[in-house]
Amino acid sequence: xxxxxxxxxxxxxxxxxxxxxxxxxxxxxxxxxxxxxxxxxxxxxxxxxxxxxxxxxxxxxxxxxxxxxxxxxxxxxxxxxxxxxxxxxxxxxxxxxxxxxxxxxxxxxxxxxxxxxxx
Length: 119
Fold this sequence. Notes:
By secondary structure, the chain is of the alpha+beta class. It is 44% helix and 23% strand. It has a 4-stranded antiparallel beta sheet, with no helix packed on it. It is elongated and about 65 Å long. The protein starts with a helix and ends with a strand.
């Protein structure tokens, strides 16, 4: 099948739209990194304060990372507590309960989020 000038134009616009979306997402990630710097708990510490856990809740209420790549989430939240090809998990324990965020992924794109509280 022969590609027409219209086909090439549409493809060009789709590529530009994808690049614009990528740029906007990168800017959003940088904004969140700046806004939440020093406020989010480390999963490496294995313990979290109620205040830092509230910061994670505030972040997740503000930002929906579905459609973002895994690297973007890790830039904002740091390294996950655990990771597999299907999901990556952030666990936070306050000593009196805690929470975990499970990010479902498909080919390194976040496709779902499950939040468990009071674990």
